[in-house]
Amino acid sequence: HLRESRGTFVSIQSALSYRGIPLQGGYCASKAALRAFFESARVEIQKAGWDVAVSAVLPGAINTPQFDRDRQKTGLQPQPVPPIYEPEPFAAGVLHCCERPVRELPLGWGAQKLLWGQKISPRAGDFVLRRMGWSGQTTGAPKPLDAPDNLFSPMPGDPGAHGRFDSRSRRSTLWTSARLLVARAREPRRVG
Q: Which CATH number characterizes residue 96's domain?
């Protein structure tokens, strides 16, 4: 169906598909697998001559309810690694990729820094993660190890899109906005 519609496949990945971090090995591995799968698919689609774009969205830390619903084994309340963004800039980036495909779109300055850091000096990233990789992922508040989670089954109720970190979250991302403006400026002008 995608081939006939000449559409765009938008893959929601993570900046952590490029860099594993402590306490999230399984998550990082699954996102890296997605990245590799869609890189392969992109080339296969191109070779087949299909007019289908493949965009990868690489968000950084987003304020979603997942941090209250994930299983954790630290005894501390998880949090997104700052800087934290609200879900709306992420949704705007996904919509942009649907309408104007971009090969890869890091969402947020934190995501972009992580990608550049991994390419320029992975050892520096190791150093930073050894010092802050654990503390940056928790609020420091206790959370019981047996707290309800969604590992094996969904939790009841609709948690919405926002998590508990609204007061600490950025409502926009200047970096991503600038990146999207540059992408729009490079588009060919349509006549008629």
A: 3.40.50.720
Q: Please give the share of the chain, as a percent, with pLDDT higher than 90.
A: 82
Residue 86 falls inside a structural domain: yes
Token digits for 148?
Answer: 């309800």
Determine how β-strand 76-78 pairs with β-strand 138-142: antiparallel
Q: Which two three-digit tokens encode residue 12?
A: 């929601």
Question: pLDDT tens digits for 64-102?
Answer: 999 999 999 999 999 999 999 999 999 999 999 999 999
Q: What mean pLDDT, rounded, does the chain reach?
A: 91
Asked if residue 166 is part of any domain, the answer here is no
Query: Measured between alpha carbons, how far is 145 from 160 in angstroms, rounded to an integer?
Result: 24
Tally of structural domains, the chain:
1
- Residue pLDDT, tens place only, 106-164: 999 999 999 999 999 999 999 999 999 999 999 999 999 999 999 999 999 999 999 99
Report yes or no: 30 and 123 within 8 Å, Cβ to Cβ.
no
Burial (CB count <10 Å: 0-12, 13-18, 19+), residue 181: exposed
Range of the domain at 10: 2-64+75-148
165 closest CA partner among 68, 28, 93:
68
pTM for the full predicted model: 0.86
103 found inside a domain:
yes
- Kindly state whether residue 82 falls inside one of the protein's structural domains: yes
